[in-house]
Amino acid sequence: MLAYAVRSSRGFRPLFATAALSGTAYAALQLDENLTAKAVHADAPASKGALDPNEFRAFKLKEKKQLTRNTFLYRFELPAGQTSGIYVASCLVTRAMLKAKPEDEKPKAVVRPYTPTSAPDAKGYLDLVVKVYDKGVMSKHIDSLKIGESLEMKGPIKKYPYEANAKKHIGMVAGGTGITPMLQVIDAILDNPDDKTQVSLVYANVTEGDIILKDKVDALAAAHPGRFKVYYVVDKPNWGGIFWRGGVGYVTKDILATQLPKPAKDSLVMVCGPPGMMEAVSGNKAPDYSQGEVKGLLKELGFDSSNVYKF
């Protein structure tokens, strides 16, 4: 069975109900397969695991576990004793021949990125956490897979080049499935006793029931009280918020000022979530998918491109 182990003033409304895509996933909706392939090849290291950055390989679905009303953890089988090849921080792309639009006469290659939540040193399996959308072509395809059926993947794709102790304090702002790259970095930090980096996470969702991997996040916070803290924000708390101890409705400038590190050379804020959230908190990436200018609440707080990273 799938299980989780604990390794060592103005604001915005989280628009997760209609567009809860991470910044990376949203960008990929604009990409065709050739452009995505170029992104993979641009800085692709030699393959060190089951994945390959230069070709798609098929992996069989081994297990499936429901996490929220529309989010699932899919575990794919890797060759015995082999790791995926994923490193911190990186992602992969999936590919399937699908009819992306109702008017399509023939299936075509659909490519979408995902950040694995399994540890880089996990042998024999790779986990993807996927939110299934009504209009999500790839997410619906992954959800339709039966145990034993395969999904094509290519990677890893280099994202943020994390180095232990390079920063004193890392803040994170995540929305919905934007938690997945954050967990990749959090796990790497907390699993390394020599890494003294502090981590502060602000994690926003629509309801309490939509908080992905909350049990794992809470367990990490409890196990590392001096190194990792989390502050949840939900748009619609249960029971009118009577028993809710986190933020309600808006992620505000005050919340970020209180929960995140101050702007400094030894601090960094990572952001990943739906486009509306990205724009309000940090600004979206540039049209060419580079980091672009820092805008929104983080700019008002004094952050700039030297201490903000957009997944």
Q: Span between N and C termini?
A: 30 Å
Count of DSSP E strands? 14
Main β-sheet description:
6 strands, antiparallel
User: Low-confidence parts lasting 5 or more residues at pLDDT below 50?
Assistant: 3-42
Mean pLDDT metric: 88
**Which structural class best describes the helix and strand composition?**
alpha/beta
Shape: globular
Side-by-side strand order of the widest sheet: 5-4-7-2-3-6
Helix-strand blueprint:
Blueprint: E1 11-12, H1 16-19, H2 23-28, H3 33-42, E2 57-66, E3 71-77, E4 90-98, E5 108-114, E6 125-131, H4 137-144, E7 150-158, E8 169-175, H5 179-190, E9 198-207, H6 214-223, E10 228-236, E11 247-248, E12 251-252, H7 253-259, E13 267-272, H8 275-281, H9 296-300, E14 308-310
Parallel strand pairs: 8-9, 8-13, 9-10, 10-11, 13-14
Antiparallel strand pairs: 1-12, 2-3, 2-7, 3-6, 4-5, 4-7
In short:
The chain has helices spanning 16-19, 23-28, 33-42, 137-144, 179-190, 214-223, 253-259, 275-281, 296-300; strands at residues 11-12, 57-66, 71-77, 90-98, 108-114, 125-131, 150-158, 169-175, 198-207, 228-236, 247-248, 251-252, 267-272, 308-310.
